[in-house]
Queue: 2 jobs
Job 1
Amino acid sequence: VISPVSLFADDSKVFSRIVSEKNKNKCNGANGNEVLQGDLDRIKEWADKWKMEFNVDKCKMMHLGSSNPKSNYTMGGANLAITTEERDLGVLIDDKLEFDKHIRGIVNKANRMLGLIRIGFSCLDEEIFMNLYPVLVRPLLEYCVQVWSPYKQKYINLIEGVQRRAT
């Protein structure tokens, strides 16, 4: 396999820089479409050799970048589905490398958890809440923050809104 491969447990990702036809000569004639399709074919051959199966229905293609020619790719004769967003290790990412839906989702989960804490404890005092908040709410807000770290003020305000609601 020529393209970079990322492996984690039973999950694998193959990625390649795709050069459009008009920029092909500027990049030493390399075209990522053929390289990526060849790598997918070689991965399928390897899996067949070792009596493993890829569930092609779960294999997806995400095109990144505005100059991407958005080619179709196959694996084992079946076309790979094209997706615009995907959840990977609990983080929702889209084809623009934005985390808007992910941040809104975790803020909603954290607000629901705050509501459950308020409903679930009839005698909720400050001491009990100070024990519950770091265990039940903060992990929701901090999971994989290194990946989706909010840099836009609107996302920072959403996340801080959870803490304001809690206090």
Job 2
Amino acid sequence: RKEFVDLYVKYMFNESIQKPFEDFMRGFLRGCPTRQWKMFLPVELQIVLQGHTEFDWNLLEKNVKYINYKELDQTIRNFWAVFHKLPEEKKKMFLAFLTGSDRIPGCKLQLFSFEIVDPQVENPDECYIFANTCSHILFLPR
């Protein structure tokens, strides 16, 4: 039984995925030659490719730039009051809404920022909150 289990595990984890993994590796290395990736430790490479999974939400608040708003405007204070009361999973969902990912990109956490913009619509009550994920801009009507 032990030999059977060992052979089965070897097949499932190594042999059965060998061809798909080789295809993936060949494609990955075509776009990302290994010389550049060798400078990273595995944990650093994971952050570069996947982004940060730990967040400092207060730091994120400090890094926000406001357009057509001031930091002490009531809308902004309300936004942050509600945001900080959200559970961690909802904050990550907001990040996904804003950036397209529930992780902060691989740059330093201190450098990540986004903008909150007043879209200056005629009737703000009829305008939804929306985001430009490429530019990390949140359009927040008053």
